[in-house]
Each structure stands twice: as C-alpha cells, then as structure tokens.
C-alpha cells in the first residue's frame, strides 16, 4: 500500500508540473526532439520543412511486407471518396505507359476475399500505408537493422 501511495504522489507531482506550464522541462529531460523544436505547445510554431521529397531514386524496402515509399511529390494529389490520382498511373494497364509500378494484387481483393477488377475500397486511401520518402534526420535514436543485413 505504501508503494502504491508513493507512485500516486509521484504521478500527481508530474501532473502538477505539466499542468503548471513547465512541461517543456519534462520533455527536455527525455532527450526527445519534436518537429516543433523547442517551441512550447501554447505558442504557434513554424511548420516543419517536410518538402525534401526525393524524385527518381527509390529507397529499398527494409522488410518483406513493407509498403513501398513514394519517390515523388504528392502534395497536390487528390485522394478522397470521389477521386484517387494515384490510380491514374499505378493501376493496370496505365502503369505500363506511365512507367510506374503496378498496384499490388492484394489491393484488388475485398474484405471478404472476393477478387475485384478495381482497387478495393478498403485500399483506396493510398497514403494510409504509403508515404513520400524524404532525407531527414531521425527524431529519436534508431538502431533498426534491415532484415537483409541480419542474414
């Protein structure tokens, strides 16, 4: 009971420090850096520069089922309930004339396992899994090793 009481008091003290406006001190002690940098949460920050998208060069995948990264800018692409501009280049047979990788066959199977002649609605929003690749510094230390490098 004494240990539980001590943990509760420590939690309340941390909550008091966070609510009291000193949350930046707690975050600094963790060694993590956010995209906001040192800008406090109650202050408007400049947007992070995420427009370092590489074009032409594709990053290799790090594990077997990794969704491929997008090697080009997509900031003006329309992907909503009515339109998906990715399909214009990546769907079969347009992908051959566009010189783009074809959408995986798994994207043409619905939730019940039925094969379709069009991209399944459960796979319609490409950017749920696929993101533009960028050359950026890691926000936190990373010791990830590719599955290929392990063997």
Walk me through the structure.
The protein has helices spanning 2-29, 87-90, 94-98, 147-150. By secondary structure, it is mainly α. The chain has two domains: 1-35, no CATH class; 49-137, Flavocytochrome C3, Chain A, domain 2 (Orthogonal Bundle). The termini are far apart.
* SSE series: HHHH
CATH superfamily of the largest domain: Flavocytochrome C3, Chain A
Kindly report the average pLDDT value.
77
Strand residue percentage: under 5%
Number of helices: 4
Task: Specify the structural class.
Answer: mainly alpha
CATH architecture title of the largest domain: Orthogonal Bundle
Ends: how far apart? 49 Å
Shape: globular
At the first level of CATH, what is the class of the largest domain? Mainly Alpha
Strands, count:
0
Q: Tell me the CATH topology of the largest domain.
A: Flavocytochrome C3, Chain A, domain 2
Major sheet attributes: none
Tally of separate domains: 2
Poorly predicted regions: 1-28
**Helix proportion:** 25-40%
Over all CA atoms, what is the radius of gyration? Answer: 22 Å
Care to give the gist of this entry?
The protein has 151 residues and is mostly helical. The chain has four helices and no strands. It folds into two domains: 1-35, no CATH class; 49-137, Flavocytochrome C3, Chain A (Flavocytochrome C3, Chain A, domain 2).
Secondary structure topology:
Layout: H1 2-29, H2 87-90, H3 94-98, H4 147-150
């Amino acid at each position: 009971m004494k240990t539980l009481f001590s943990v509760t008091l420590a939690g309340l003290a941390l909550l008091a420090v966070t609510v009291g406006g000193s949350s930046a001190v707690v975050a600094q002690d963790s060694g993590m850096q956010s995209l906001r940098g040192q800008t406090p949460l109650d202050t408007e920050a400049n947007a992070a520069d995420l427009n370092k998208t590489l074009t032409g060069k594709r990053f290799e995948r790090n594990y077997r089922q990794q969704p491929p990264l997008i090697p080009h800018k997509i900031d003006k692409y329309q992907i909503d309930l009515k339109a998906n501009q990715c399909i214009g280049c990546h769907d079969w047979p347009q992908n051959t004339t566009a010189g783009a990788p074809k959408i995986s066959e798994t994207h043409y199977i619905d939730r019940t396992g039925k094969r379709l002649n069009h991209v399944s609605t459960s796979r319609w929003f490409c950017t749920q899994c696929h993101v533009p690749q960028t050359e950026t510094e890691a926000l936190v230390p990373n010791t990830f090793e590719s599955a290929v490098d392990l063997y």
